[in-house]
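User: Can you write out an input/output pair for a complex, sequences first and structure second?

Assistant: Here is one pair. Inputs:
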Amino acid sequence: MQKTIRGSGRRRRAAGAAALGCVLALTATACGDDGSGSAGDKGGEGSGKGTITFWDNNGGVRTDVWKQIIADFEKKYPDIKVRYVGVPAASVQSKYDTAIQGGGLPDVGGVGTAMLAEVAAQGALEPLDSRISGSELSGKLNDKFLDSVKSAGGDGKTYTVPTSANNGTLWYRTDLFEAAGLDAPTTWTKFYAAADKLTDKDKNAFGYTIRGGEGSIAQALDAMYGQSGITSFWNGDKTTVDDPRNVAALEKYVALYKKDTPSADVNNDFTKMVAQWDSGSIGMLSHNLGSYADHEKALSGKFRGIPNPTLDDGTRVQVSNPVDGLALFKSSKNKAAAWKFIEFAASHASNSKWNESAGQVPANTEAAQDAWVQSSEPTKLAAEALNGSTTEIVQLPYYLPDWNTVSKADNEPAFQKVLLGKESAKDFLSTLADQLDKAQADWKQNH
Amino acid sequence: MITEIAPAPHRPVRPPAAARARHRPWGEVPRWQIYLPLSVYLLFTLVPFYWILLFALRPAGSTSLVPWPVTFDHFHKVWTERSFGVYFTNSVYVGVATLVLTTVVALAGGYALARFDFRAKRAFLLALLCSQFVPGALLLVPLFQIFARLHLINSLASVILAETVFQLPLSMILISGFIRNVPYALEEAAWVDGCDRFTAFRVVVLPQLRPGLIAVGSFAFVHAWNHFLFALMFLSDQSKQTIPVGLNTLMSADSVDLGALAAGGIVAAVPVVIVFAFIQKWLITGFGAGAVKG
């Protein structure tokens, strides 16, 4: 039989007192001064010297090029040291959120327009309008990118210095198109014709791979507005996503699923989609410039990347892609040094170096003229599309704090239902429109 | 004289074929009925592993279904260029330190739970169990603030402490189950022989706890080795990061180097596989004894 021992009352009291002491000590250490680096901290200009911390919002793949830029910066400003922290892209939002609440924000951080509203709404970012206008960057930043950044901030202020933009790209296999005697899919009509002609299910060959998993909504919106020709996301206070022309466009687009695409596409996130396209016999893939290097490794000389197809009259309508940028955090104790780093990173040489490595469109207009942009066809075409007068860009409402929830968690499963034929495109867009109208109304109430 | 006629020996009646099939002992089941489903299951389980090996060992851009020609470029890349050598070392520190701390504290706590009777013991046990339902993400901000006050942010100690705290409740419950299974009379006998409580515990109880210690230690190590969130949030310097965070950095917002990711995945998985291969027997005994009999 198991025996137990009851400790003496004296011992128990001593143990209780010790435990209580520990609890009080821990409570005291936890609830004391809330330290620095949280959103409420106003920071200061500082001496312009010393160490600053920089969080890269796409750490890992871009680490090497950032380290080069930091080395160049420290050579130019030997009295400033930059502590680089590479944060995985998928976790950067939660890392910022935790630091905003708990402290430990960096001096400078990469913040794309897709999450700018959420970070700015928590009061963590310093408005940069006056700093930009008084700096060497004034007049050298792409106006459209600046507009995107201002719009995404939610209150008309500029919270990041734009560094690069991505763009929706239609990647297609030149070898398969040539073998089938097809023209480049420059218009939507040619796109659908090619998707049909390149599909031969018996040979496991498909014309297109559709994105049905994570990230599907933005891509569907791009295809939808591109075909409908509607150029604005809002008509007054109501969204245009459920406009009958958009409904028709989406119906046509989702009809590709299984007819001209693999059936597994219903779960496609960008990783699966890109891997599938790089290793299979699929004619076309819609993804941004970011996968250029992956295609080059797998399909060198057998593919091209062109901007989204146009309407038959040559008009191109596309949705805005996230613009990446550098933000100065309010809590920084050394804003002078932090701003020097931002200026340096967005300057001609550094911006060119970074974008050449990433294969994206430089925000610095001088960098956009560099030779590498002209020799990298997908980047050059994307830059022309972004800046061209025949391209209409539908600005997605990144400024809505609910945008990420609405365009991802709330509706991606519903889009899968549309692909599987369990929900109509009309019902899907109608629900999406209701959610967006409500989010817009809520936002307007607070602004 | 009374004689009894012995009954005629009972002649076993052979059951009908259908009944025989229904009651066939395991030993008589045709082997293919065992091996076929197992083979299908094994294939189903191993295909993803083969796929990881394939991507890790074949050259970038290859679409071959066999890893030939074999290349170790991806391993070289992740180990040197992507700092997996550093991440690996950090993960070993975190894993081993969590294992040691968890085991030592769980031993002490488990002994108290098993051998002492104290007020609100049941409530305490319930609280230990309930703590398992609290997700780590919920405590991130308070933990971050506590570690910041203690100047432990960006130190491996923060991750080790957080992992240990989260491992302790279950480990204590498991260890206490093991200790209850060691007869108390053995300890009493040791006391009679002149041992103090600690010596009796060390000499008599501890050797009986080997399966439990291995189960708890390995569980703590593997959990700390694989855990991503605390390392991501509490560590900033690249030189302090651990393997799960390193793996995550191989996936950018719009591009994934699948070869490097597969190689990194193998680097991350090998220690765990080795640990489980060596301790499998103890682990099953440990969890069975601690959880069921406890």
